[in-house]
Amino acid sequence: MDRMINKYAGVLLGSLMLSCCGQKNTTKEETTEPADTDKRIEAPTFNADSAYAYIERQVAFGPRVPNTEAHQRCADYLAGELDRHGAKVYVQEAVLTAYNGEKLKAQNIVGAFQPEKSRRVLLFAHWDSRPYADHDTDEANHRKPIDGADDGGSGVGILLEIARQIQAKAPAIGIDIVFFDAEDYGTPEFVDEYKPDTWCLGSQFWAKNPHVPNYKAEFGILLDMVGSRGATFYKESTSVQYAARYVEKVWTAARELGYGKYFINAQGGAIVDDHQYVIQGLRTPCLDIINYDPDTQSGFGPYWHTQNDTMENIVWCTDNLVWRCSAEACFGKDYIA
């Protein structure tokens, strides 16, 4: 199996850190702390084997479809890992209604790092997997659940590795990592009547009922399908509309690090994803780092929502690009330990 380190995660923590620390401090807590430039340090080094193992572990549970044993076992694992990495963990349980009226026992899993900090950044991904392979070329597979190695698993794996790094080298801001549930239970292709707002059920619930009252973050970054071979990231339209300054920080960091061929300096389409509901519900500017292929009918890779979304699609190289560019952009030059 090809186990090169994923090129795309390196941009995330780099751009996250630069965006946070490149802003002027405004709160009492932040203005009273000395800006000791001698304490500036580099962003943490991404451990590819660790991130790969996090993805592999999720897939090993089986499809993470709500109301299944695999789903519950994975939920326990994710909460346990965030706790092990030093986060204050919130497990937000909710019964959500699917497109067909089915009641889904959902769990949004939140890890809050330095919850006492007033300045906060939100990182998120969905952890459930699609109950239907409704884009599979074999119609017999359309009602079978998928592994979701890339679609769900890759973003969560990268964020778990970020959680591990945060514990080792805490930034000067608070970071909340949220794993949203029931993102991928939207109206399937084999149903004639499409129902809006049937995707992203977990983030819809959380945006109306955040894990702490009056939750605020300066901005958020969503990771979705960030681990596959040949992935490219265009500037998603909703992200550009509501979080243009943060989009530019991430894509600029990518270019400066030599990853411009992966982070395309062009706008892609608007994608219904968790960030949309966080923006609508909390007015938090969010950007979506998501693999987008303008040359396919779906806009995504050929394995998307098929039985082929397996670990074979998770390709690693020695420089994890999503991690590095995000870290460089947000925690890099102005990061105060």
Please write the string of helix (H) and strand (E) elements: HHHHEEEHEHEEHEHEH
Strand order of the largest sheet: 1-2-4-3-5-8
Rg for CA atoms: 19 Å
Helical content stands at 25-40%
How far apart are the first and last residues' alpha carbons, in Å? 38 Å
**Can you summarize the main beta sheet?**
6 strands, mixed
Mean pLDDT: 84
Overall, the morphology is: globular
Q: What is the overall number of helices?
A: 9
Total number of beta strands: 8
Structural class: alpha/beta
Q: Uncertain runs with pLDDT below 50, 5 residues or more?
A: 1-10, 16-41, 332-337
Note the beta-strand portion.
Answer: 15-25%
Q: Can you give a write-up of this model?
A:
This protein has 337 residues and is of the alpha/beta class. 34% of the residues lie in helices and 16% in strands. It has a 6-stranded mixed beta sheet with strand order 1-2-4-3-5-8, with helices on both faces. It has a two-stranded parallel sheet with strand order 6-7. The longest helix is centred in the middle third of the chain and has 20 residues. The protein is globular.
Can you give keywords for this protein?
alpha/beta, two-stranded parallel sheet, 337 residues, disordered C terminus, 9 helices, globular, 6-stranded mixed β-sheet, 16% strand, disordered N terminus
Draw up the topology in text.
Layout: H1 12-21, H2 28-32, H3 48-60, H4 69-84, E1 88-97, E2 103-113, E3 120-126, H5 149-168, E4 174-180, H6 201-208, E5 219-224, E6 233-235, H7 237-256, E7 263-267, H8 274-282, E8 286-290, H9 321-332
